[in-house]
């Protein structure tokens, strides 16, 4: 988390990296609990930017372990 002070508003930037979809539920639950605790610390008046890798998967499965991006979006 980085917080930058501005003249009229402050900017808070969060960089997150979520566990993969196949991770155990307790790890995913801990990630989202930690994210919520961090968000609770951000002042309401701040401009908030959250970026990172939420490990979403797009497209169709090629086999049991490979994923492909569906070209209909490009």
UniProtKB/TrEMBL annotation:
Domain of life from the UniProt record: Eukaryota
Name of protein: Endonuclease/exonuclease/phosphatase domain-containing protein
Originating species: Artemia franciscana (Brine shrimp)
InterPro entries named among the record's database cross-references: Endo/exonu/phosph_ase_sf (IPR036691)
């Amino acid at each position: 988390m980085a917080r930058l002070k501005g003249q009229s508003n402050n900017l808070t930037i969060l960089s997150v990296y979520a566990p993969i979809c196949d991770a155990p539920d307790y790890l995913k639950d801990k990630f989202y609990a930690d994210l919520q605790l961090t968000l609770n610390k951000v002042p309401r008046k701040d401009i908030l930017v959250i970026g990172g890798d939420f490990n979403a998967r797009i497209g169709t499965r090629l086999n049991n372990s490979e994923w492909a991006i569906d070209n209909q979006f490009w």
